[in-house]
């Protein structure tokens, strides 16, 4: 049959060193042409596809053929239906071979259940891949391994005795435990910082730590939780204990955004080290998630100062000004990697519970750029004639209400739009007054004229 060059829309080329390059340049170009988006310079997705159409996967020779999988889940990510998201990545001899990010079909009642459902999806996929490789007369040398960063899910997969509270999950997902018990695969635990399927959250984790510190200063909050996605941070805090259920004002939001971005610009190194739970808890100003049960030893992460310095002098009054926390998640190595931070909203979602929504990296840059653009449009509108201003103000108000822009800037723009509305009302009143005066003048003139007309 000869060498493989093209199969089901996938192009294959071989280098002189024997590496296989698998890519879809032809298909991507055809897709863009069909959508008339080959030159869509202002739209990010077509631009990205156009610029990376020749990128692909490179498969090189390997001494051992093995399959390893990293499975993860983001619990309750969707605020509308509270369904979690499964993410996994399969490696064939250290090369990405198959990956997926998909919302789960049912609501998981705990992080362990969400992670176990992710394990199930991963096991199903890797089982199919093994059968596919078998048809190609390729058999992995090493035992299949799935890595998960949730100790409860790992324990459930390996334990033949199932807790009664988890039996509803067993009905759907029993085959993972069967495969582990039969020795078909191993489910191992991996630290969050080494979780390949979770790398897109690394910048957000660090920003949460900084954000927590700044909101705590602003509101004196007593408890906290957060949901993270690759797109945004949703950050919850309890303000009821402070008798301050009102919103954080625009000045405070602006200050929080400024401080977080200053720490990003400062290019501060991020340090981590394991310590005993007792030692870690002694650190002055250390942050922890309310209600979270931490292992012992625990991982301490700090920004701008080495963890050893914090442990050596835990009661130092300087430490509350430094972002430090207990966390086993995925982290950047320097704050500069977060690129930018934008705080999009702050709102009450229940009595005494408020939510902050924020973004980092390119999303933050785009939000800031859009905010500047809308502010400029409002400034331009203030110079328009009154007969054009009414429609423009209504259009701007709709655009600003739906725009994902920094909350402080949105408040500033709304204040300017309110000024335009007041300006418009005054102008309309003046016009109405002038029209009334004109009408009265005309009526008087007509009345005078009527006196001189014959009967």
UniProtKB/TrEMBL annotation:
<dbReference type="InterPro" id="IPR050058">
    <property type="entry name" value="Ala-tRNA_ligase"/>
</dbReference>
<keyword id="KW-0436">Ligase</keyword>
<dbReference type="GO" id="GO:0000049">
    <property type="term" value="F:tRNA binding"/>
</dbReference>
<dbReference type="Pfam" id="PF07973">
    <property type="entry name" value="tRNA_SAD"/>
</dbReference>
<dbReference type="GO" id="GO:0005739">
    <property type="term" value="C:mitochondrion"/>
</dbReference>
<dbReference type="InterPro" id="IPR018165">
    <property type="entry name" value="Ala-tRNA-synth_IIc_core"/>
</dbReference>
<feature type="domain" description="Alanyl-transfer RNA synthetases family profile">
    <location>
        <begin position="246"/>
        <end position="370"/>
    </location>
</feature>
<keyword id="KW-0820">tRNA-binding</keyword>
<keyword id="KW-0067">ATP-binding</keyword>
<dbReference type="GO" id="GO:0009507">
    <property type="term" value="C:chloroplast"/>
</dbReference>
<dbReference type="InterPro" id="IPR012947">
    <property type="entry name" value="tRNA_SAD"/>
</dbReference>
<dbReference type="GO" id="GO:0006419">
    <property type="term" value="P:alanyl-tRNA aminoacylation"/>
</dbReference>
<keyword id="KW-0175">Coiled coil</keyword>
<keyword id="KW-0547">Nucleotide-binding</keyword>
<protein>
    <recommendedName>
        <fullName>alanine--tRNA ligase</fullName>
        <ecNumber>6.1.1.7</ecNumber>
    </recommendedName>
</protein>
<comment type="similarity">
    <text>Belongs to the class-II aminoacyl-tRNA synthetase family.</text>
</comment>
<keyword id="KW-0030">Aminoacyl-tRNA synthetase</keyword>
<keyword id="KW-0694">RNA-binding</keyword>
<dbReference type="InterPro" id="IPR018163">
    <property type="entry name" value="Thr/Ala-tRNA-synth_IIc_edit"/>
</dbReference>
<dbReference type="GO" id="GO:0004813">
    <property type="term" value="F:alanine-tRNA ligase activity"/>
</dbReference>
<dbReference type="GO" id="GO:0002161">
    <property type="term" value="F:aminoacyl-tRNA deacylase activity"/>
</dbReference>
<feature type="coiled-coil region">
    <location>
        <begin position="410"/>
        <end position="437"/>
    </location>
</feature>
<dbReference type="GO" id="GO:0005524">
    <property type="term" value="F:ATP binding"/>
</dbReference>
<keyword id="KW-0648">Protein biosynthesis</keyword>
